[in-house]
Amino acid sequence: MTDAPELETDRELVGIVAVADNGVIGRDGEMPWHLPEDLRHFKETTMDHPVIMGRVTHEGILEALGEPLPGRTTVVLTSRDLETPGNAVVARDLEGALEAAERAADERHGGTNRLFVAGGATVYEGFLSSLDRLIVTEIDDDPAGDATFPERDPETWREVERDDRDGFSFVEYVRKE
Ligand SMILES: NC(=O)c1ccc[n+]([C@@H]2O[C@H](COP(=O)([O-])OP(=O)(O)OC[C@H]3O[C@@H](n4cnc5c(N)ncnc54)[C@H](OP(=O)(O)O)[C@@H]3O)[C@@H](O)[C@H]2O)c1
Hints:
The chain is α/β, with parallel strands linked by helices.
């Protein structure tokens, strides 16, 4: 196992994910549910911040929106030579992604204190031990899927906020000291 990549500053590294009861987060490159409230929540939470994601998730967003997430800087993890528009940058490894996100926070997002990690499965896995906070949409369902959120040790995370809705909840966790 490699060491957890660490931020050079005291910024918060925040994971944001929608996850079903059975741990599923994706199917065939998409989310297995249609939840406009969650998409709004994601947009409001991440707006004007750097957002790190894997190449597969990035391509899913390009397919859905025709462009990277507006108003944010997308840091795309990939080993490929991708062409990216102005509001997206490529990173080759987890450390490089953190550096690119820190740079974007300073240069494009007013020095914001938060950097987001927005999936998919391989990217959550890579960063899980580095995350300070998790913003989770917990979905009351057990859909079929091929991408799951990595196992979380309940001893590591303390719930600090919960907003129960119809069929899902917005929940926030912080890493215990
Ligand atoms: N429910 C949610 O909140 C949520 C959020 C995001 C995504 N998803 C779902 O998750 C699924 C996609 O997840 P995924 O795990 O298949 O793909 P992914 O994590 O989005 O992308 C995987 C790719 O990212 C690159 N990558 C990952 N780690 C890297 C590293 N350490 N260094 C360099 N490159 C790295 C590699 O790209 P190359 O192959 O180009 O080298 C790898 O193939 C989709 O179904 C999507 O809808 C769900």
